Amino acid sequence: MSWSEVFNDKRVLFAIGVTLVALGLIFLKDLNPSTIDLNFGIEFIGGVRIPITLEHSTDAQTMGSMIDTIKTRINKFGLSQANVRPLGDNEIIVEIPKADSSAIRHVEAILREQGHFEAIVDGKQAIDGTQILANAVGGAGSEMVEPGQTPEQVQWTIIFAVNGDGQMQFADAASGKLHYPVYMFLDRPQHAALLVKQADLGGLASGETVLTDALKKQGDDITLVYVEEFDKRRNELFASNVTTVIISDSLAETDPQIVAAVKKEGFLPIGEAPENATRKLSVLPVSDIKPVTVSGGVAAGMQTILVSWPAIGLRSAPTLNVEPLKQNAITQYSITGTSTGNTTDEAKKNAINEIKELKSILSGGKLPIATVIGSYYDIAPSLGTEFLRYSIIGLVLAIFAVSIVIVLRYKRFKLIVPIVVANVAEVMILAAIIGTFGTIELSAMAGIITLIGTGVDDQIIMVEELLGKRSPEEMEEANTKRGTSERIKRAFYVIFIVAGVSTASMLPLLLSGMVEATGFAMSTILGVFIGVFITRPAFGIVAGELFKHG
Fold first, then answer.
1. First vs last Cα of the chain: how many Å apart?
2. CA quadruple 541, 545, 546, 547: dihedral sign
3. How far apart are CA 375 and CA 360, in angstroms?
4. Residue 350 — φ and ψ, nearest 5°?
5. Prediction pTM value
6. C-alpha to C-alpha distance for 519 and 514, rounded to whole angstroms
7. Beta strands of 163-316 (E only): which ranges?
8. How many whole angstroms separate alpha carbon 94 and alpha carbon 374?
9. Which residues of the chain, if any, have pLDDT below 50?
């Protein structure tokens, strides 16, 4: 075989083609060859890691559903490089590269929400989240931010569509309810009671219609109990159908005896409650307990209009201005809100994030299990840059170190070029695949570096087979194409066995669910396949031509 035949061999051409594609993915995706266009983990480019604890342990199928839903929500928010991974059977890790503090706050809010949307008119459910068309939430022309009443305030709107069944259900619920508010909830608490101080409601009078109407839902009213009436209404608060009690975080300081009485009845925060607890205590900031209202206008006879109420999941309450017709057709509805900031630009940024948050939740589906968000922590970009620099230096040193060792072992300097080229090609192909379709994190980088060692092992096997001791008859046969091919085939018999063992040994790590291990296992397995099916065959052809004369 001549060198022209070597470079026309389909195995060599295939390896060259795949390497060129890998180079394009690494450097040319943004048409700027001076930048690396791969997705790196927060260890290399900085970012934020958010731990999530599930309300209780779950099986692999439910965990997979949780991961998919969280990924969808975060991607809809516009953070496509976020990495979401399970940790055991009751924890999830979310890693977000290059995220600012404003985005992180809204991502945390996204992760806290279970994602169940419903619209209620006069106590009757009008729309359920399952009727929302996931691909018709927001988008061009359906997300608006407009000036508010002050320079530090803006109004925002997001439009979404429901299917024909949703339109029919809305028409039934809203029939005869012209000028009534349409209460739009996200994760409205079920079988809940709200225990608050009168003063925390922002001056609204006890029993005011604007409050009681928002708490109504056929078969599942939210009970409102004032701290001032606790002794009189404690039996109502602790009724058998109440599974969640909502209080403010300040109540533990001002009225610890009341909080103690609530806990004594079995209502405990998620962190304190046993895994199979049927009652829970939801502790919210005082700002969430206070309803947001505006004065003026008349809606169903009310002078005060309720805009939102975070404590019960109320996000918006637009007035029904037109009585809907029963058409059984896809229909658009809107959620409106108000965002504030120290400046108009800050208010606009907050409004855009509010829209993104709602959009991601409405189109991302409901989480099957409630979650508790832990404290996030930052990894500085400067530290990440050091990680990346040292990793690249490690790759280069590893390639040249093993090349020199092999050259010294066989005393054949012409081995350097094919070994270095094959190793560099393998690293580039593996990095391009992981960095394009996934994320190169620290454990994945460890797998990439490990690939150099496994690749050299296979190259040694081939070189040993090509340069091993042979009889005169074998020497004569080695000078033929058939003889070289036979020796490479024998080498690949061993290589395939080694590859199978390597893959089998990595599978338990890949399926373990351990965050630190899965990236390493995946990159190792991919590296084995890249070597066996792409670079090793090409190396064998080149090495065979180099050493066919012994």
1. 15
2. positive
3. 22
4. -65, -40
5. 0.57
6. 9
7. 182-186, 192-196, 223-226, 244-248, 280-284, 292-299, 302-308, 314-316
8. 11
9. 297-302, 475, 478, 549-550
**Residue recorded with tokens 């209460």:** 183
Nearest to 247 by CA among 308, 200, 213: 200
In terms of Cα–Cα distance, which of 187, 44, 176, 49 is closest to 121? 176
Q: Can you say whether the dihedral through the CA atoms of 364, 367, 372, 374 is positive or negative?
A: negative
Lookup: tokens for 235: 């039996």
Distance CA 527, CA 493 (A): 18
Q: Domain 3-35+380-546: which topology?
A: Multidrug efflux transporter AcrB transmembrane fold (1.20.1640)
User: pLDDT tens-digit profile of 449-462?
Assistant: 888 777 777 877 88
Residue whose pair of structure tokens reads 């040993």 in the numeric block: 464
The tens digit of pLDDT for each residue in 249-308 reads 888 889 999 999 999 998 988 667 776 778 888 888 888 898 888 765 444 444 677 888
CA angle 536, 537, 543 (to 5 degrees): 80
- Helix locations, 411-471, DSSP H: 416-437, 442-467
Cα–Cα distance measured from residue 431 to residue 26, given in angstroms and rounded to the nearest whole number: 8
Q: How far apart are CA 239 and CA 140, in angstroms?
A: 47
Q: For residue 13, give both structure tokens.
A: 């051409």
State the Cα–Cα distance between residues 315 and 336, nearest whole angstrom. Answer: 8
Q: Are 422 and 455 in contact (CB under 8 A)?
A: yes
Domain range 47-105, CATH architecture = 2-Layer Sandwich (3.30)
Looking at residue 56, its amino acid is: H
Judge if 3-35+380-546 and 47-105 fold alike in CATH terms: no
Structure confidence at residue 359 (pLDDT): 79
SS3 category, 78: coil
What pLDDT score does 297 carry?
46
Buried b (16+ CB within 10 A) or exposed e, 289-320: bbbbbeeeeebbebebbbbbbbbbbbbbbbeb
Domain extents in the chain: 3-35+380-546, 47-105, 116-353
